[in-house]
Design goal:
The protein is an alpha+beta fold. The chain has 13 helices and 7 strands. Strands 6-5-4-3-7 form a 5-stranded antiparallel sheet, with helices on both faces. Strands 1-2 form a two-stranded antiparallel sheet. The chain is elongated, with a radius of gyration of 28 Å.
Length: 338
Amino acid sequence: MDGVQNETEMPLVKSDVEQIRDLVGSQEFLEGFVETQIMEQVQAVSKMEGEVARQVKINIGRSIPVETTRRTGLDPERVAEIRAIRQRNESVESMTDEEADLVISRWRTTAGEVGREFNPRRVEMEKAETKRLMGKLEQDSKWQEAQVELARVRGEQVAVVERLRQDVESRAEDPRLAHALDVWGRSPNARGETGVNGSGFNAGIVHYFEYRTIAEKNGRFKGRNGCEIDDFIHYSEVLEGLIDTPDPLTNSEILLSAALEDDGGQRRLNLLTRRHDRVVAFARRGDRKPRVVTVIPGGDLPAIVKALDEEMFGQNVKNRLNKLGMGVKSVDPSELVR
């Protein structure tokens, strides 16, 4: 019956355009992208809050001897101190108990005191002292400037994602985008998943867009390439030029190239560019030329040699999506485009 999928029918592999639309349109992408782009501003604010947490520990430590809190509770004279701290903080309403707990947890983590049983009255004092110091911090001009800058940068990055979403919708039928996507092969996504039938995802979408939502991966493009469709198209065209002309003697952008082929006609190309990016491309049997599967900054000759040895001798490649088969041999890189 039309519109009803057979239970045994395999799900369809999404097109590259559907893949990029789903990715950039998700709330997960928005949140991950924004948070990775504003890390410096977040760290500036966190550093100030961390100083508050450190001072709380010092102040409370002076007020309540550790050995006292480890016994049965606070001495009666300490109750007056608690009340005094609470009274000082009656006018500070900017921080909830939950927010105070978050700040307090920072110094517990750094002090290796996670999981230790704390005296309930001491916890009350910690919250009160945290609120008092945070109240002072919020009046500090540097704190206020840091908050304004954080809000500004966050707004800018949200706008970047919104423009990208609109860009994807308006360029969905653009042949230049289709060609750029075709420069890339298949790879696992950022979570290591290989998708329907283990066929992977478009490596360009994963590397150029999805990796920007992960702090460890974001540095690959930060400060070098924008996050718009035209930027992606231009970057893909540059990579295509490297693949089409992989010989360092005829392409000044390449320092080193090396290629392998197996008995089944699958081919892998490793390039080291003048920017010291390691570009890896893979061609399956029947492909006219290799497609880019990854770009790794900071490449060098030892990394290329190690990759070639692993392929030649079958080391650490059992679960690789783009894996060569039997009979791997070295070939002339200029012969990979057919």
